[in-house]
Automatic annotation (TrEMBL):
Gene3D superfamilies: 3.10.20.30, Alpha-helical ferredoxin. Its cofactor is [3Fe-4S] cluster; [2Fe-2S] cluster; [4Fe-4S] cluster. It comes from Ammonicoccus fulvus. The keyword NAD does not apply. Keywords: 2Fe-2S, 3Fe-4S, 4Fe-4S, Iron, Iron-sulfur, Metal-binding, Oxidoreductase, Tricarboxylic acid cycle. Belongs to the succinate dehydrogenase/fumarate reductase iron-sulfur protein family. Its EC number is 1.3.5.1. It is an enzyme of class 1 (oxidoreductase). This is succinate dehydrogenase. The lineage of its organism: Bacteria, Bacillati, Actinomycetota, Actinomycetes, Propionibacteriales.
Amino acid sequence: MRIELEIWRQDGPGDQGRFERHVVDDATPEMSLLELLDRLNDQIAEVGGAPVQFESDCREGACGACGVTVDGVPHGPVANTPSCRQHLRAFGAVTTLRIEPLRSAAFPVIRDLVVDRRSLDRVIEAGGHVDIATGTAPDADSLLVTTDDAELALDFAACIGCGACVAACPNGAAHLFAGAKLAHLALIPHGKLERDRRARAVGERLEEEFGPCSSYGACVEVCPAGIPLSAVAAVHRERLLGVLKPKRR
């Protein structure tokens, strides 16, 4: 199958950037978006050009590294599916694709399709951790957690930090990402000690790095992990609890 591509090229953070047109004549329906980019780069390299820079790692939908925007949609047309698992067979009769980076003021472009997502890392640094006592491992039944809480915590922990939620949000908010982290840690006993401090720290970092959440719900449609919109509510709930509790020194 013949695929016409409009690919975003940008030499660096200070470059204005532009779209380049390319054609891949030997694409197949089984190809993923990343395999299509691989094939394109083979063609570009054959004529001595500079390959398109993009990120990938596991290519199994687990690492969150591969996010791109396809025809204006983070990751691509198939809902709740990362870029590496978007296959051309799902695009129907579409033969022209526009591929560009995840678009957000919080994600400056480094080169071509590669963006700087360290703003998400800074949210984790602010409060995405727990204090664990060192020494002998505790008995298995010393920290009690119900099956329902454990399963729900694992559901929220499934977030892979790809950043698609931020790119999909009209406000550039990261509340789905941050809420998944807060909800996950609030449900397990290990995170109780610093729960209020975590909520304040994460909330402050969100305000510094990202836009406000207006609950549009666009983030949920593109999230590869299927994180529910209730994660957004967790941000506000945990922050309120953090404000009501006295600050610990």
